[in-house]
Write a structure and sequence with these properties.
The protein is mainly alpha-helical and about 190 residues long. It contains nine helices and no strands. The protein is globular, with a radius of gyration of 17 Å.
């Protein structure tokens, strides 16, 4: 193997490791927040627990996209806008279906990018048509993403994150958003 190939391969492995570590941190934050928000909403304990599982697994479909994304990391803004990245929730759903996860977990993962106003994906669901688990994950996912460093920007501070989320409040179920705010401000 040539030195250039070996160096490129090592570089790609380091990027993949970093991405996996970042995704794991993100999943843990979303999981913990989703559990806490579900508790704040006084959902049954089993649903709170199921949301913790869904929060940890919500972006697992991105693993199916790593071979496409690797090699394109020089332009991460383009990557996040690609239609393929928008497929990750459906890919995650398909990957986990038939592996013993509840329909509640699977639908929470599938629809976690649906916006309350109907502008999300993959199905442009709106309002109460979006499963409650997905509506909870949506708020927690956005918060975690904004609070985290990205290849193209540093993490925002909490005040800025809250301002950005309030600016986009149309994306969230207001009852869930208010419960989320109570959780993060405790």
């Amino acid at each position: 193997m040539s030195t250039v190939r070996k160096t490129t391969s090592e570089f790609q492995e380091r990027i993949l490791e970093f991405d996996l570590a970042s995704e794991l941190r993100h999943g843990m934050m979303v999981s913990n927040l989703a559990y806490a928000v579900a508790e704040e909403l006084k959902l049954p304990h089993e649903q709170c627990y199921q949301l913790a599982i869904a929060g940890m697994l919500h972006d697992i479909g991105k693993l199916k996209l790593t071979s496409y994304i690797n090699g394109k990391e020089q332009d991460p803004l383009v990557i996040e806008e690609l239609k393929y990245v928008r497929m990750h929730s459906a890919l995650g759903y398909e990957e986990l279906k038939g592996q013993g996860y509840s329909q509640f977990v699977l639908e929470s993962i599938l629809y976690h990018h649906e916006n309350y106003d109907g502008s999300g994906y993959p199905s442009n669901k709106s309002g109460e048509d979006i499963p409650i688990g997905a509506r909870i994950l949506r708020v927690c996912d956005v918060y975690s993403a904004l609070m985290s460093d990205r290849p193209y920007r540093k993490a925002f501070d909490m005040d800025t994150v809250m301002e950005l989320m309030i600016d986009e409040v149309k994306n969230f179920d207001m009852r869930i958003f208010l419960a989320f705010q109570r959780v993060v401000h405790k």
